[in-house]
Design goal:
- This protein has 90 residues and is mainly α.
- The protein has one domain.
- It is built from three helices and no strands.
- It has helices at 7-28, 34-58, 66-87.
Amino acid sequence: MEIGVQISDKILHAGSYFLLTISWLLAYGTKSGPLKYALIASAVFIYGIIIEILQGALTDYRQAELYDIFANFTGISVATIFFILVMKKN
């Protein structure tokens, strides 16, 4: 059984959601605490799920993939941890 996961596509997903999350954290999170970070990360994650559902429902040439959602979550998680450990200290 072949899964058919394209690693490069998942790296692009993770990278894109890393940048999106960092952007939101920098815009709204520099003077905030953990609750704000969790809200931003959750909002970006929900956005990613909605986009996956819409591309599966509204297009013929794209499909919704659970692995894309996992990759998005990875990018969001890494961005949030990076922001808390590195950016917040400065």
